[in-house]
């Protein structure tokens, strides 16, 4: 019981810190926000902040990882073609619209790209491809894909995420590694 309570408290603290950072970043340049300001806005101590995160960048990276895990966990057997993989991804991003729009307007947007590369490298191990490629080719392909996807997401966020997830999937699904034929379990 105590362990479950501690995990719940830790999640509440982390969520509060993440939300506080986004609220502050809406009105202040990201690189001018301090840990003390975030902790104060979140209603936690600096010690609680540092028990959960190493830096403000760590807050952003952890939030992105959580969103990517939500995406990965939401995929079903029906989501095995490029269109559905893309549509579900954009649906997941739309659920975190406030976070992404704020981060893309800040100087920390590059964190999204680095986390996207890391996520795609991990996720690509689950993809079933009909073309064999060397590890070097796979690495370049992932970085190429991540850069393109990053810029599409940035443009979508900067435009207010007006297009639906279906529209976004239609716009780019044929550009996503045409050799992907599914996701393994």
TrEMBL record:
Query: Which Gene3D superfamilies does the entry link to?
Result: Tetracycline Repressor, domain 2
Q: InterPro entries given for it?
A: Homeodomain-like_sf, HTH-type_Tx_Regulator, HTH_TetR, TetR_C_Firmicutes
List residues traversing the bilayer: none
Question: Where is the HTH tetR-type domain positioned along the sequence?
Answer: 11-71
Classification via SUPFAM superfamilies: Homeodomain-like
Which residue intervals are the DNA-binding region? 34-53
Keyword terms of this UniProt record: DNA-binding
**Listed PANTHER family:** ACREF/ENVCD OPERON REPRESSOR-RELATED (PTHR43479), ACREF_ENVCD OPERON REPRESSOR-RELATED (PTHR43479:SF11)
Protein name, UniProt field: TetR/AcrR family transcriptional regulator
């Amino acid at each position: 019981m105590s362990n479950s309570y501690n995990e719940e408290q830790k999640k509440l603290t982390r969520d509060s810190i993440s939300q506080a950072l986004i609220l502050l970043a809406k009105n202040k340049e990201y690189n001018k926000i301090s840990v003390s300001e975030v902790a104060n806005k979140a209603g936690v101590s600096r010690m609680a902040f540092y028990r959960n995160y190493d830096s403000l960048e760590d807050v952003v990276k952890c939030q992105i990882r959580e969103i990517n895990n939500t995406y990965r966990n939401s995929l079903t057997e029906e989501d095995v073609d490029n269109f559905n993989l893309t549509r579900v991804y954009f649906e997941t991003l739309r659920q975190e619209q406030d976070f992404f729009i704020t981060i893309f307007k800040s100087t920390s947007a590059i964190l999204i790209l680095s986390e996207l590369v890391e996520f795609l490298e991990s996720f690509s191990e689950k993809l079933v491809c009909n073309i064999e490629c060397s590890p070097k080719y796979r690495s370049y392909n992932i970085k190429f894909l991540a850069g393109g996807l990053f810029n599409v997401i940035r443009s979508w966020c900067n435009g207010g995420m007006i297009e639906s997830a279906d529209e976004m999937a239609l716009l780019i699904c044929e550009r996503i590694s045409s050799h992907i034929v599914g996701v393994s379990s």
